[in-house]
Amino acid sequence: MATYDRTTELHALDATKTGVQGLVASGCTTLPRIFIVPPENRIPLPPALPTSACNSIPVIDISSSDKKQVVEEVLRASSEWGFLQVVGHGVPQSVMYSMLDAVRAFHEGKYEEKARLYSREPAKAVKYHCNFDLYQSKFTNWRDTLYCRMAPDPPTPEELPDSCRDTLLMYSKLVMELGNTMLGLLSEALGLDSSYLTDIECNQGQILVCHYYPPCPEPEVAIGTSQHSDSSFLTILLQDCIGGLQIHHGGEWIDVPPVPGAFIVNIGDLLQLISNDRFKSVEHRVLAKNAGPRVSVACFFSTHFHPASTRLYGPIKELLSDRNAPLYRQTLVRDFIAYYYSRGLDGKSAIEHFRM
């Protein structure tokens, strides 16, 4: 205990440029100390409520011809759950599976390609690393990440990994279209014109965050992704069949089992802020498992990639009244993100810092 130097061990992991997958490939059978969650913070068993009709997030077919019903279902899910699964989205399942396969191939691929991209430089459009908040978070998560900023300033094709370049470009285009569709439905759910959220540029930034969770030798003392809410306006998540995602709802943790062909869509902190709490940004986490590897691709929609932007975001004026006063102060998105990143995933919502 007396000789444990967490900072030194974090730097040692970073220096390998191979992350968690490098530990597994080297034959690691016990967790390095930096990954061990203290007993008081571990997830008790059973970790979540069993899935049932009354405690599973809504699944919505957004291709239904009954547009009014779809908008009502989106409103209910966004205000009560903060999460929904969507089908009928128009993205071919073949593309979804190809994306998961491409991400897996990158993470299990050549050291040279990953080392070339390994970085913590905020301005880089494409980078690979182990835990974006490695030096801020209390617990090192058992996962590696390929980060690709696809909009508004997309990377050159040469910046993207050879192993998944074409798939990334095709997938990002289709998920951008889905994001625009969802923002239109969310606008209407707030009683606004369908273009409202895109008109205020909620769709201008697109990041693909491609996570890889290798099988964990001691999952009972580790965490895949710490409890957190998303900083974005909107997140669209593709997950494989392994599972492990849980959301906090009604004071309980609830499993989100994979639904074949579905995307998970969740409200981010910024959308809760501008909707003045009409929509909920819900805390969630990912368990470490000895199965897998688990692969997921989160698409975050935000706007903090324009450092010079002076657009302030606060509660939408059309939603306010004498009986519905603003709950948050206005903020630049880059200031919100800077605060979010300064804290790491610490289990506390960053949005409360901006509440009036």
TrEMBL record:
It comes from Rhynchospora breviuscula. Keywords: Iron, Metal-binding, Oxidoreductase. Gene3D superfamilies: B-lactam Antibiotic, Isopenicillin N Synthase, Chain. InterPro entries: DIOX_N, IPNS-like_FE2OG_OXY, IPNS-like_sf, Oxoglu/Fe-dep_dioxygenase_dom. Belongs to the iron/ascorbate-dependent oxidoreductase family. The keyword Oxidoreductase applies. This is Fe2OG dioxygenase domain-containing protein. It comes from the Eukaryota. GO terms for molecular function: dioxygenase activity; metal ion binding. Residues 203-304 form the Fe2OG dioxygenase domain. SUPFAM superfamilies: Clavaminate synthase-like. The keyword Transmembrane helix does not apply.
